[in-house]
Amino acid sequence: MSRKRVWITRRLSDATLERAARDYDVVINHEDTPGTAQDLIAASAEFDAVIPCHSEHFSADVVAQFADRLRLRIVANHSVGVDHCDLPALKKRGIAVTNTPDVLSDATAELAMLLMLGAARNAVAGDRIVRTGAWESWSPAFMVGKQVTGARLGIIGMGRVGRAFAAKARGFDMEIHYYNRSELPANQAQGARYHRSIESLLGVADFLSLHCPATAETINLMSADRFSLLPQGAVIVNTARGALIDEDALLHALIEGRISAAGLDCFQEEPGGNPAFAAHDNIFMLPHIGSATRETRDAMGFRALDNLDAFFAGQTPGDLL
Length: 321
Ligand code: DGY
Description:
Blueprint (H helix, E strand, L loop, with lengths): L4 E4 L5 H10 L1 E4 L8 H10 L2 E3 L8 H5 L9 E3 L10 H6 L3 E3 L6 H16 L2 H9 L20 E5 L3 H11 L4 E5 L6 H4 L3 E3 L2 H5 L4 E4 L13 H4 L6 E5 L8 H9 L3 E6 L18 E3 L8 H19 L9
Helix pairs in contact: 1-12, 5-7
The structure holds (2R)-2,3-dihydroxypropanoic acid.
(2R)-2,3-dihydroxypropanoic acid binds next to loops.
């Protein structure tokens, strides 16, 4: 039987690429540039499968231009988020879509913890002042931050990553509250208190961490109105998607002191981020690297390949959406 032809759009981990090349006829984009709309349209006629990242946008418009003689049968994402894929449009063309849940939860939760601590404790200004030789004095009033231990943490989206973050936050004795579409069973909630509305959660969130997907319902979820409901001096963390935060509203909330700091790994505009944030030392920023650990990159690649293997073996992939 001829080997299936697979396009790997970005530079995945070495172990992933080796396994993919062992089992498939692969074309790898070693240049590691994001796939353009034209690339995706061409791929629809040339490949049986694509393993993309969130940098390749399978919008309805792109899918509408897919080849009439369609070869593409599966988009096996190397990501848990699939907001870059128009699922109904792909489904309409009979193309299966999978993602890579679970395997990145710990890495992303670790990064959320880093952002929360760094934002709360002046990591940006502190690092700069030492690095640039500008640290000339010390005072008890110097760089006083917000204590995480024992504080109230609000989590929006108590899926796998939200729960992994809650588990780590318990190590800091945080009082955990959450909003989710539905209340978790006790064995998953582990004592976290459920709020039926986001508004109710915000009122107790000294620290707020976002862990829900970007969908039509969650775009600009953190609006000006919602920022105003947070306790004075709250800290917000986002390792999910930039689309969840109205960035003008966030800046306004920071400037007026409603929030004291933000830790952001995701932005409305990626790559690049929001240039208006750069002037604010109390925004601790990273370039969308939540899942970027060696272990997790291997695990994501292997999970995408497991899905591909199952699909081409005539089985239902474990992560079929
Ligand atoms: C994901 O898996 O969704 C991460 O954001 C990396 O793409």
